[in-house]
Amino acid sequence: MKPEQELRMDLRTEQRMALFGRLRMAEWIEMPEEEFAREVERIEKDPLFKRIYYGETGTPGIVRRQPWPRARLGGFYEINEQLLAGSQRVRVEELLGEKAELLPRIRRMGREAFERYFLYAEEALPLEEIARRTGLSLKEAEAINDLLVEIGAEAEFSRPKGEGSRGYSCLGRLSLEEGEPGFEFYSPYWARGLYQIRYDLLEDWKRSGRLSGQDLRKLPHLLKRLETVNLRQNTMFRVLESLTKLQAEFLGSRSEESKRPISLRMLAHRLDLAPSTVSRALSGRSVLLPWGKEIPLIELLPGRRRILREVLSRWLEENLRVTDSSLAERLRQERGIRVSRRTVNAVRNELGKGKR
After folding, report:
1. CA distance 355 to 316
2. Predicted local distance difference test score (pLDDT) of residue 325
3. Which of 158, 185, 231, 269 makes an SS bond possible with 190, Cβ 3.0 to 4.6 Å?
4. Average per-residue pLDDT in the chain?
5. Is residue 68 pLDDT above 90, yes or no?
6. Contact 324/355 with Cβ under 8 angstroms?
7. Are 134 and 227 found together in one domain?
């Protein structure tokens, strides 16, 4: 075979692999949150993952946590308080079984220690050392770690009760903290952020002989799954963070009139993503606004035409005789929306409110 033919074959193979990778990532982004949580559970309950995550005595783990900026865990602590108060809001006993007794232990441990050693694993410590520092038995420490994984997969825990959008997975509550977006997530796998893989330490593990032949065969597949989870979650978080920033005025004022017109294509361009990727990230997901109302995530992405219809409908109720040019100028000054007189006229006709 000629070298040119070999090169063409290699290029076709690379193109097929790239296409397969894009299709696979599309599946992961579109994957419902409950199904994704089960995937995370399978990964984190894998004995090999536990070994490289917690490490061994004198040898730090390979995988750490990289939390999102201005993000925290919310609903878990509410469940803790309700369980201790005897609330029947959630079926804690049925869902957690014998692990229900861990919640009072977590409370006694304190939120700071719980988040430091279990939620975010800020230090690379073996589980035995974490148990010693927190006054737990090794069995209890292992159970708390499993609890964090399992609880994220239970819709009863991850979804807040109250006014909401049925049929959607609620990711968490949005907030504004000194003008910056804040996030209170309801599932631990969201609050914990990304996996940080220490490839420099991985080489040390390989050289030391701590990994068996079977471990070494499984490891590439495990690390690939971690990287895929990271890519999926990072894409989702970037969409969420960008929408929160773009709609900061609306989130701070509660006024529908302050909602910015944002198209799917505009957001995709801003994030350097394909519009189809952004669409998949928005699909079937909701968020809780700072004042407690739950909305589908897509509602933070109203197109310009929709905003024009809503705004002009209100303004024309005040004065139907106003000119198209005056409305266009008012849109520019008050809403920062630049449109032509003809566009205003077209929307007026759609609304059935042409000038009389």
Report:
1. 9
2. 85
3. 185
4. 81
5. yes
6. yes
7. yes
Residue 78 is predicted with a pLDDT of: 58
pLDDT at residue 347 tops 90: no
The rounded distance, in Å, linking the Cα atoms of 224 and 142 is 25
* One-letter amino acid of 125: L
Q: Is residue 253 part of a domain?
A: yes
Residue 131 has pLDDT above 50, yes or no: yes
| Axis-axis angle for helices 264-271, 275-282 (nearest 10) | 110
- Distance separating alpha carbons of residues 85 and 87, to the nearest angstrom: 6
Do 140 and 213 reside in the same domain of the chain?
yes
Take residue 208 and report the two structure tokens written for it: 């030391």
Average pLDDT over residues 185-191: 89
What residue type is assigned to position 211 of the chain? L
**Whether the predicted pLDDT of 18 surpasses 60:** no
Residues 211 and 307 in one domain: no
Whole-Å CA distances, 273 to 110, 232, 239: 41, 12, 10
**Both tokens assigned to 192:** 């914990």
**In the predicted structure, residue 2 carries a pLDDT above the cut 60:** no
Alpha-carbon distance of 132 to 314, in angstroms, equals 64
Number of domains in the chain: 2
Domain coverage including residue 285: 31-299
Most confident of 20-24, 48-52, 106-110, 326-330: 48-52
